Amino acid sequence: MVDHYQVLGLARNATKKEVKDAFRRLAIKYHPDKHAQSPEHVRRNATVRFKLVSEAYEVLNDDLKRASYNAVSDSDCFRRGSYSSNPYGNRSGRAYGSGYGYGYGYSAKNRQSSSFSSGFDMTFRYLTTRAFLLNLALAGGLYFAFTAIDTSGETLWKMRNSGKSFEEAMESIEKSKAHKDEG
Description:
The chain is built from seven helices and no strands. It is mainly α.
């Protein structure tokens, strides 16, 4: 997971104006049109960074997305120091053989318990979101409606065709068709 604050070079308590100013500054710096005449690797790097900057701005400029991002990133591994905080993925400054995504003193035992608790937290947050609850209410309403329609259809059939089952009614229809064909 990328730290959007670090991509824009901001503190976590940055205002919307600071987010917007940082985005404009970096968008101009990394815009693909500006690097159209540059070598291929420079163009690719600028495009990747421009996408990261755009994504960071999209998340941090919207209050709901920012709150959701802050909630998830607070419980995420990279906030605890287990992953590199460099948003561009290169591990400069590390010794050969150390790392592969794990921080210093971070054992597998700690990772297992924290991943369970963060997974539980994320599941709980998802199950209590407004969108999930609205979808659950809609699904419940549809289920109730289909059940009511099915039950009412059966009740109407019994009211109009007392003493006959559906199969018996179909047999009598078939007999009447056969009788018409004979005559």
